[in-house]
Amino acid sequence: MTAQATNSDASQERVGLLRVLGPVHVWALGVGIVLVGEFMGWNFSVGKGGAFGALIACWVIGLLYTCVAMIDSEVTSTVAAAGGQYAQAKHIMGPLMAFNVGLYLVMAYTMLEAADALIVGDLLAILAGQSGYDALDPRPFVVLIIALLALLNYRGVFMTLSLNFVITAAAFVSILILFIGVKPWQPGAILQHQGLLTELPYGWIGVIASFQFGIWYYLGIEGTCQAAEEVRSPSRSLPLGTMTGIMTLLIAATLTWYVCSGLLPWQYLGQATVPLYDASRMTGSLMLQIFLFVGTMFAATASANGCINDASRAWFSMGRDRYMPQWFGAVHPVYRTPYRSILILIPIAVSFAFTGLLDQVITFSILSGLLGYTFMPINMILFRRKWPLGTIRRGYVHPFHPLPAIVLMALCVTTFFATYLGFGTQLLAMMIFYIVASLWFVLHRYKFVRRADQFTMNWPKPLGY
Amino acid sequence: MANKYEPPTQSGLGQIFDSVFLLALVYIALFIPLVLGLTGAGGTDNMPEVVNWETLEQNPVMQAQWEKLGYTPETAAELITHRFDYTIDPFMLILTGVVILGYFIFMVKASDKEYRDVIREKFDS
């Protein structure tokens, strides 16, 4: 299929993406992206608030994601169009919000991909250092991993996500093996919680500050919605894959915190690049060390793989809707993948990975995710106001409205404040990026957008319009 | 009855310009501040005059774990004594709040204006 064909009227027949994915692939896509958060990144919350602060952040941010899941379940089950939150924004709030939501997804996943590649490079450098060679440059490996995964995504989604399933499962098993290996039934034998856990080093303000990286335990699980267009049975596969994914992450996050806080002093844990691998080194078992090396490599690879998939789909959707140059809305004539959208994001991921600034690259990803979560309560309230219950068929109606929306908004505001504590300049840089991009869209890009094509649902006219 | 809006066709050059603009925006707004060290966490260090495990307030369990990681009191001191600076600058806090709030208000208002175009064309034409 040519770009010209892709760019033609919506009424013309278009080559779509292949519908080949099942619940297992959805689970692999969601968990594959997020599981790496147990292997790196979450521990920066320990640095900001201490070990107990990180645990509280894990639970409170778990509440944030519960609200996200409640709201998303209602809107996603009703807006049966591909694109997840992006499609929701198009139908409920309007093109500018949709453009921003699409951009949140692209930036969150691309920065996460950069962090993943950075971890692969750093882990190899650490291994080389332990083997007596301190001068290994991780950057060629960063380029290699991103290039290989981009090629895999270019060639086809089924093979890509099948690979993700295998390596994600192996990474999860490595966490379980480490947990068993540290003999949690014998406190004090290997795990040293009594000697290592301390009071809150910054008091309660540190606990709030740690919410920033608490997001990292779960960030990206909502990306399962991005595969909607390629799933065989979206109504069954998406909820099943997402819910089993959240359960997997809750288990993995709990085990990870417990093992790491019992083996590493919090000051070390709070800035470690690969905390689970470090924890395995502390056991003195070479076998565990090998398992966690492989687990970390697999988790980072699976995550980067899923991120390339999701970021390119979001960029592709925006190209198809002309929110971005329509050249990006093309599907590969043979592989049926959004190949141009895959390629355009590679330099961004490589550049940010080359900085080596893991906590800051992660923060860009977190902030884009957080902006997306802040959109959700506004979206939910407008959704119920424009189409009150009973006016359209909803697949699921979440209880206690508007309480989840209010709680979600309050937690988002708190997490913005948490980011301001320590990373305030970066927060402002990210906001400037989105403000300039929004002005570009309003003043320039919107004129290329077909108006009525933005609303494809068979719903009545919204109230108040 | 609303008229159907027919968007202009963007030239290839225009598409290249838009793509380059977005990439440039990513690099100028996000990448350059990062590599110039303008972002990242501010912190304080309270290094004791004499550095040993006791002055670094590390109990025997902590000492053993640091040593297993390959650290001595001297090499671990910076990690142990570094703290985030959570001092709140009221001006920066208010500025940050206003920027985020203003962004979302602009987003909701401008989106709604565009949304009315979409609904008008979808339902009234």
UniProtKB/TrEMBL annotation, chain A:
One Gene Ontology term, aspect cellular component: plasma membrane
Membrane topology: Multi-pass membrane protein
InterPro entries membership: AA/rel_permease1 (IPR002293), APC_superfamily (IPR050367)
Keyword line: Cell membrane, Membrane, Transmembrane, Transmembrane helix
Pfam families registered for this protein in UniProt: AA_permease_2
Any one Gene Ontology molecular-function term assigned to this protein's record: transmembrane transporter activity
Gene3D superfamilies, sorted: Amino acid/polyamine transporter I
Compartment annotation: Cell membrane
UniProt signal peptide: none
TM segment ranges: 24-44, 51-71, 91-110, 139-154, 161-182, 202-219, 240-266, 286-308, 342-358, 364-383, 403-421, 427-443
Name listed for the protein in its UniProt record: Amino acid/polyamine/organocation transporter, APC superfamily
Taxonomic classification: Bacteria, Pseudomonadati, Pseudomonadota, Alphaproteobacteria, Rhodobacterales
Automatic annotation (TrEMBL), chain B:
Domain of life: Bacteria
Segments crossing the lipid bilayer: 20-41, 91-110
Key words of the record: Membrane, Transmembrane, Transmembrane helix
The protein's name: Uncharacterized protein
